[in-house]
Automatic annotation (TrEMBL):
GO terms for molecular function: copper ion binding; electron transfer activity. Keywords: Copper, Electron transport, Metal-binding, Signal, Transport. This is Azurin. Residues 50-172 form the Blue (type 1) copper domain. The keyword Ligase does not apply. Pfam families: Copper-bind. Residues 1-21 form the signal peptide. It comes from the Bacteria. The keyword DNA-binding does not apply. It comes from Marinoscillum furvescens DSM 4134. InterPro entries: Azurin, BlueCu_1, BlueCu_1_BS, Cu-binding_ET, Cupredoxin.
């Protein structure tokens, strides 16, 4: 008799567990999937545009050494010179170089291009985007489309600055 009671108890527990674990009707399950779908999409949605701010100081430093965007995004970048020195002695710009560009070669060539904000005209194909040179207390804003996914360098091309004022511009795939 005890064996029969134990057997019935095991069967009853198994039936109750399967009934509770089913998760409801097919309609309820479908409704749950539909309700969860928009949340999953919004978590991976990437905005069409992004605003970035980077600062340059009188100590020849950017406050960020990495900026991240997604390919194809419209990027609005604001460079702020938070120092007080004039652009003639401590000017800064922000230059996004193409993947093929060598920052050292570009920086060396930039020293002979003061009339074009230290953007050498024979290396324009190395430049994706750039701000003008600004002095202490000034800011400049540019807008451009993020390039293809990959890693790019950004620099300040004011003479002597590129070696310490640089960073990575990381473009993530869509």
């Amino acid at each position: 008799m005890n064996i029969l009671k134990n057997y019935l108890a095991v069967v009853l527990v198994a039936v109750l567990m399967s009934a509770c674990g089913g998760g409801g009707t097919k309609e309820q399950a479908a409704s749950k999937e539909v309700a969860e779908a928009p949340a999953a999409e919004s978590a991976t949605a990437v905005p069409d545009s992004v605003a970035l701010v980077i600062e340059g100081t009188d100590n020849m430093k950017f406050n960020k050494d990495e900026l991240k965007v997604t390919e194809g995004q419209v990027v609005t970048l604001t460079l702020k010179h938070v120092g007080s020195m004039p652009k003639g002695s401590m000017g800064h710009n922000w230059v996004l170089l193409a993947a093929k560009a060598d920052p050292a070669v570009f920086g060396a060539a930039a020293t002979s291009a003061p009339d074009t904000d230290y953007i050498p005209q024979d290396k324009l194909d190395w430049v994706i985007a750039h701000t003008p040179v600004i002095g202490g207390g000034e800011e400049a804003t540019i807008t451009f489309e993020a390039p293809a996914a990959g890693y790019y360098k950004f620099i300040c091309s004011f003479p002597g600055h590129w070696g310490v004022m640089q960073g990575d511009f990381v473009v993530q795939p869509k």
